[in-house]
Automatic annotation (TrEMBL):
Stretches assigned to the NAD(P)-binding domain: 7-181
Protein name: SDR family oxidoreductase
Residues in the signal sequence: none
InterPro entries the UniProt entry points to: NAD(P)-bd_dom, NAD(P)-bd_dom_sf, NmrA-type_oxidoreductase
Length: 281
């Protein structure tokens, strides 16, 4: 049996491959655009470019199960995913596991529509599919820990909205659990971390661990976008991240249920542990 992982050189893909190597004797294949970037992964690598369908048949040859990690190019992902799903059908792949978005069917996040489109393609594919609706990555916010310490405040636009995030490693472990076991055909898992927290609570944890007063400063969506631009982010990226925070204020990043804990066999990584890791870097 063989398992192929798209986006093998990305942050999530690397974690999945590392965990798979510890959990299965199945053949593991990493799919990526740039094979040189994956030279350290220790698995077979095959070139696969979503935008070049001609690269896909050879990349998928002999694959039994495919982990489709959603692409990173917002606005292009639905077409890219279609190319890969079509190629998977033609290659006779038995099962696709897809990393979607928490509550993708009802999420107000701008990210959600391409996930909805991809889930619909999978449902119509005739293949055995499993959808992992990943919640927010804790790293999306702990990436701001060092700047917060340097600036003496943690800035955002999430108000008192709860964030049910988990670490990338948690989501990788969930994917590996599904990839290496049976009984997940047709399942849609809502993967949320617990307990959820606010950015005020995140700032308080940074303060506790550093011994410094790092308050949370809540800005309007527009002002937060300007602040992110001032920190060096391109305007479209800054606007996107500000919108995610604004949606978090309305509950878009919250979630409940125990799907994640059941799949990984433990509680999700505590926010405090993620803060500690960010500070150590």
């Amino acid at each position: 049996m063989s398992i192929a992982v798209t986006g093998a050189t990305g942050q999530l893909g690397r974690l999945v491959i590392s965990a798979l190597k510890q959990r299965t004797t199945d053949s593991i294949i990493g799919l990526a655009r740039n094979l040189d970037a994956g030279a350290d992964l220790g698995v077979e690598l095959r070139r696969a470019d979503y935008d070049q369908p001609a690269t896909l048949p050879e990349a998928l040859q002999g694959v039994d199960t495919l982990l489709l990690i959603s692409g990173s190019e917002i606005g292009k992902r639905a077409a890219q995913h279609k190319n890969l799903i079509d190629a998977a059908k033609a290659a006779g792949i038995r099962r696709i596991v897809y990393t979607s978005l928490l509550h993708a069917d009802i999420s107000p996040l701008g990210l959600a529509e391409e996930h909805r489109q991809t889930e619909a393609m999978l449902a119509e594919s005739g293949l055995s599919t499993t959808v992992l609706r990943n919640g927010w990555y804790t790293e999306n916010h702990t990436a701001s820990v060092a700047p917060a310490v340097a600036n003496g405040a943690f800035y955002g636009a999430a108000g008192n909205g709860k964030i049910a995030s988990a670490s990338r490693a948690d989501y990788a472990d969930a994917a590996v659990g599904v990839l290496t076991s049976e009984g997940h055909d047709g399942a849609i898992y809502e993967l949320a971390g617990a307990p959820a927290y606010t950015l005020t609570e995140l700032a308080a944890e940074i303060s506790r661990q550093t011994g410094k007063d790092i308050p949370y400063v809540d800005l309007s969506e527009a002002d937060y976008a300007k602040a992110l631009e001032g920190a060096g982010l391109p305007a479209p990226v800054a606007a996107a991240y500000a919108s995610f925070d604004a949606m978090a204020a309305k509950g878009a990043l919250d979630g409940d249920g125990d799907d994640l804990a059941r799949l990984i066999g433990r509680n999700s990584t505590p926010m405090a542990d993620s803060v500690r890791e960010a500070l150590a870097k």
